[in-house]
Amino acid sequence: MQEADFILLVLNQNESLSVEDEALFEAVKGHNFVVVLNKTDLMQNIDVARVRELAKDNPVVETSLVNDAGITQLELAIKDLFFAGEIDAGDATYVSNARHIALLHEAIGAIEAVIDGVEAGMPVDIVQIDMTRAWDLLGEIIGESVQDELLDQLFNQFCLGK
């Protein structure tokens, strides 16, 4: 939690606020968070005024996943924090395409194989097979074929012949 850029503190609104719940508020102090009071389709037993007091200036959103209620308000609360600059995403790149995510996982595996090969002292032309695979996978994501460029660079850099 200490490394989190953003926290969703989810409480059941049909249960009374517990000592553990109050301890969670203490734990998230100093972090960007949104309090989610879930299960609004059930009878309310939580002290909402106390929750708002503990949340201070952080948003409190009431939701019911059963009734699909409050989801838009939750999205807006997160968006508002994000676009207000409260959430630092300057170093984050988001990939939501399932195919691209799968290709990135494959590329990571190929790069790990390159590192293992280099550490094991394998010949460059053998290691190059995994590097070419990683390069091709990344090229698929951006729509470019770069295999020839990589081969040229590797062979020129290591003075190997084709």
Features:
162 residues; mainly alpha; Rossmann fold; 2 domains; elongated
Gist of the model:
With 162 residues, the protein is mainly alpha-helical. It has helices at 19-28, 48-55, 71-83, 98-119, 124-142, 147-157; strands spanning 7-12, 33-38, 60-62.
- The CATH topology of the largest domain comes to Rossmann fold
**How many DSSP H or I helices?**
6
Structural class: mainly alpha
Give the C-level CATH assignment of the largest domain.
Alpha Beta
CATH architecture of the largest domain: 3-Layer(aba) Sandwich
The order of strands across the largest sheet is 1-2-3
Q: What is the gyration radius calculated from CA atoms?
A: 25 Å
N- and C-termini, Cα separation: 51 Å
Order of helices and strands: EHEHEHHHH
Give the tally of structural domains: 2
Percentage of residues assigned to helices:
40-55%
- Low-confidence residue ranges: none
Mean pLDDT: 80
Total beta-strand segments: 3
Main β sheet profile: 3 strands, parallel
Tertiary shape: elongated
CATH homologous superfamily identity of the largest domain: P-loop containing nucleotide triphosphate hydrolases
Strand content: 5-15%
